């Protein structure tokens, strides 16, 4: 009955902002995100949870009393044309724990959390809400972030009705530990036939901005030998860093995922191309080393193509290592439930990496079918959803 209740709630609430054609477009604090938040608070009120919001828009629903407070959460905002499972699974699991354990709590509390703007799809950087709530970002920095329409994070919060109080921030509450249940967003668990993943931590991410500046000109009369084509340089760079990462022999990924081509017209030689390079590794030194090597490659290509390059670091994260004692409890839970588990690193970022700075933190993964995520094809089976929730529940009970 509990499993059926959880699945019913999950599939009902994840339908907000979803369509078969376009996936989920529940960007932070847009109309769909606000509706999902209202639905979550309705669920919290139904179990008589104490509901709070902080000044970063985080929603907290708490049951129980005492000084031991286990928080469980994730985010409900999505990327454009995203999937139904990313983030939402963790929020629904926290909500279900309030339902399942709320009436049995003695001298302890459980708090379910919905973090704001985890994806960074509307307001950059990602993890903006958890970063502000844990003190990583100042209020001035977070509130000044603008979306593509020039709307600031502060303005969106005020309009949404989720501008809460600073006193309710994570760092000001009595949270003892934090757990986040999430889809893997990669293919490893499914390919290797594991039912549960237990992240050791979250890899370092180095994000660089790369701009090649050439000369725009008419595509027809400009001879090939005198062109200064920024897109050619950018294309060579994209392939070069891909090949370098593939041949490195290290735990490493390098991705050019965002490109702006100016003037982006079929009959004009590209005059400027800007792109982001995303470099990740569990070892921070490796990530930084390969980012530096990418800079050298960009300069070599720029010289050969006659198009100057500007290579700047946007931000770098530290490798996050999760709490060992909590990970051991998760392993015990998997064994008691006869679920096959694998210890691994999380390659995407999560709110857990900032929560880890203020309280002991751990994560639990379930398989992503075909490793797909941030797309409408994102999928995890009902059985996998239940497996992950069962591990979470058993772990919270044991903690």
From TrEMBL:
PANTHER family: ALLANTOATE AMIDOHYDROLASE, ALLANTOATE DEIMINASE-RELATED
Superkingdom, taxonomy of origin: Archaea
Pfam family, one: M20_dimer
Domain Peptidase M20 dimerisation: 200-303
Keyword Phosphoprotein listed: no
Claim: Zinc is one of the keywords in the record: no
Keywords on record: Hydrolase
Gene Ontology molecular function terms on file: hydrolase activity, acting on carbon-nitrogen (but not peptide) bonds, in linear amidines
Name the UniProt record assigns to this protein: Peptidase M20 dimerisation domain-containing protein
């Amino acid at each position: 009955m509990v499993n059926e209740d959880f699945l019913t709630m999950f599939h009902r609430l994840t339908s907000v902002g979803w369509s078969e054609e376009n996936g989920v477009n529940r960007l932070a604090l847009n109309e769909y995100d606000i509706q999902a938040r209202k639905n979550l608070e309705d669920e919290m009120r139904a179990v008589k949870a104490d509901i709070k919001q902080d000044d970063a828009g985080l929603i907290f629903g708490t049951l129980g009393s005492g000084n031991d407070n286990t928080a469980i959460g994730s985010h409900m905002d999505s990327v454009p044309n995203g999937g139904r499972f990313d983030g939402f699974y963790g929020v629904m699991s926290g909500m279900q724990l309030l339902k399942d354990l709320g009436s049995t709590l003695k001298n302890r509390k459980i708090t379910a959390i919905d973090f704001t703007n985890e994806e960074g799809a509307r307001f950059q950087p990602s993890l903006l809400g958890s970063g502000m709530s844990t003190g990583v970002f100042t209020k001035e920095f977070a509130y000044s972030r603008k979306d593509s329409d020039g709307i600031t994070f502060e303005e969106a919060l005020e309009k949404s009705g989720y501008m809460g109080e600073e006193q309710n921030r994570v760092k000001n509450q009595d949270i003892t530990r934090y757990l986040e249940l999430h889809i893997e967003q990669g293919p490893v668990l499914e390919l290797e036939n594991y039912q549960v993943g237990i992240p050791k931590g979250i890899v370092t991410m180095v994000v660089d901005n790369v701009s090649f500046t050439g000369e725009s000109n008419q595509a027809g009369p400009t001879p090939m030998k005198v062109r200064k084509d920024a897109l050619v340089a950018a294309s060579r760079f994209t392939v070069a860093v891909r090949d370098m990462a593939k041949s490195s022999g290290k735990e490493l990924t390098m991705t050019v995922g965002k490109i702006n081509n100016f003037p982006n017209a079929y009959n004009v030689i590209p005059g400027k191309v800007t792109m982001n390079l995303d470099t990740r590794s569990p070892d921070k030194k490796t990530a930084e080393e390969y980012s530096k090597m990418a800079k050298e490659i960009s300069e070599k290509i720029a010289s050969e193509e006659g198009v100057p390059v500007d290579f700047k670091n946007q931000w770098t994260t530290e490798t996050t290592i999760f709490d060992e004692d909590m990970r051991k409890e998760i392993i015990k839970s998997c064994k008691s439930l006869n679920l096959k588990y694998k210890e691994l690193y999380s390659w995407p970022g999560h709110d857990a990496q900032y929560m880890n700075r203020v309280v002991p933190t751990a994560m639990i993964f379930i398989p992503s079918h075909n490793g797909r995520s941030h797309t409408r094809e994102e999928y995890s089976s009902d059985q996998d959803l239940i497996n992950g929730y069962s591990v979470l529940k058993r772990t919270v009970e044991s903690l």
